[in-house]
Amino acid sequence: MGTTPAEAHHADRGRMGRIARFPLAWMLMGLLGVGVMSALTAAGEPGTVSGTVLPVAGAAAAVAVYGAVMRFVARRRTPEIAGHRAGREALLGGGIGLAFVLVSASLIAAFGGYAFTWSGRDILSVAVPVAAVSVGAAVTEELIFRGLVLQAVERLCGSKAALAITALLFGGLHLANPGATVWSSVAIALEAGVLLGAAFLWRRSIWFVVGLHFAWNTTEGLLGIPVSGHVSEGLLTADVTGPALLTGGGFGLEASIVPVVVSVLLSVPMLFLAHRRGHLVSLRRAGR
Fold first, then answer.
1. Cα separation, 226 vs 234, whole angstroms
2. What is the pLDDT of residue 41?
3. Which helix (H) or strand (E) holds 114?
4. Nearest-angstrom CA–CA distance, 186 and 183
């Protein structure tokens, strides 16, 4: 007997469902959705109401799109964006991000690379726009790199390969930033790509890495240090002197050797704890 139209339709739906649940398929769909949300809300002028509201609205929309893709396309649960963990994980990550930048900047200042003076600007008029832009960047970038790309590649190749690939991608894409060099991209791959990837593997929480990323960018901005080549008015003004390898030059802190070393000192114990918790996926387990 031949296949009925209803059976053929059911078979086609089953086949399409299996294709959609393949990691690269839901990764690409998620990248498209989150990328569109980010692009639609990136038009606000810095320092204006739209420039403050749109990044936050875009971050909320990106989380909703991510959740929808994971639930309806990938057909998987999303404990990494669980609401009951959000506040605690974001605060913990934020504390680590704040300490990371302050320790790195203090070491550079101790070697004579940075000198800070009060800018005299109004606190709220500076802090609110910097924080709003940092929220948008932290949420969308972490959903893309740690939520989608790392987890998709991890399911195919294991955690180690996923960490290496996302770190290289993260560093490589920052080559488009103002003042970027090959060294600055290598530095970002090591200090941000590896550190944020290790942080996610340890906690398995998007909110933890969002908090870390947010505090990192916000603290740099308020200190008057360029954030990956992007200059903004901070509460302090940073006077930069000395070799670029120490200070990061015009690109900012991320191109300094100091945070690279500090990030390695943070990443190693995070990866150790991830292994202790059973959060690392081996190549043998990947794809099952």
1. 9
2. 75
3. strand 114-118
4. 5
